[in-house]
Amino acid sequence: MVINMDNTFVKEFIKNAKINDISIGCSGDSLKEVVKADGTYYIKVAKSNKLDKEYFMFNYLKDKSLAPEVIHFNYDGKESTLITKKLDGDMICCDEIFDDMYHVIDLAADAIKILESIDISSCPFYNNLDIKLATAKYNIDNNLVTTIDMNEENQKRFGSVEKLYEYLINNKIKEEKLCFSHGDLSIPNIFYKDERITGFVDLGDSGIADMWYDIAILVKSLRRNYETDEAEEYLFKKLNIKPNYEAIEYYILLTELFL
Length: 259
Known about the structure:
There is one protein chain. The chain has helices at residues 8-13, 52-60, 101-117, 129-141, 152-158, 161-170, 211-226, 229-239, 245-254; strands spanning 18-21, 30-36, 39-47, 70-75, 79-85, 90-91, 178-181, 190-193, 196-200, 207-210. It is α+β, with helices and mostly antiparallel strands. The chain folds into two domains: 8-85, 2-Layer Sandwich (Phosphorylase Kinase, domain 1), CATH 3.30.200; 90-257, Alpha-Beta Complex (Aminoglycoside 3'-phosphotransferase, Chain: A, domain 2). Strand 4 (70-75) and strand 5 form a beta hairpin. Helix 4 runs antiparallel to helix 6, helix 7 runs antiparallel to helix 8 and helix 7 packs across helix 9 (245-254).
């Protein structure tokens, strides 16, 4: 997917700018970094009106200073374009601190606490388990996810996305502890500066959901990046909670049915 040059605002905005492709933390959409004289920006392009919710959530969190400033949003009937200003600081997985696993996890734990502290009384979006399962079923029925998209271990364990979905239905989490959820809390989506969380990106799946969902995504991200049990052990020490591995492993399985 490419930047729509028919969009007059975008065409003028990128004039004399340096444009770089971004392949990390963009959830399958087209993401470009735009470096201008007055700062760094990102242009995300997605099919249909997929970015509507992300645009709304950026504005919803604006007063809390936890999301990028929205510069431009447009839906032309075929695709959506969203331009945001870069958050202060860097991803918590940036080269500067990535090798210091404990430092990264200190910041990740702070991010979890910040999200859980957000008042959800006025949040209009639910993304709880029933909604997630309905999304998973839609993805399966429309061939948006297939068996080959699952990791090798789960292909052997379940054989098909249909069987995995059946397992998830039959083993639903009995109790959800609802809070504000990022929806894709992998470490590239968390920004920091001067030891302080400055905000979050990729908020298209955010809303009210089980607290263990964000924790599960973060655990999955830590496993992928550090490949040691010490990472999640330290995470739960920093969060000062006992890990609910039944919920964590369930939600990690559920992510196999998402795009």
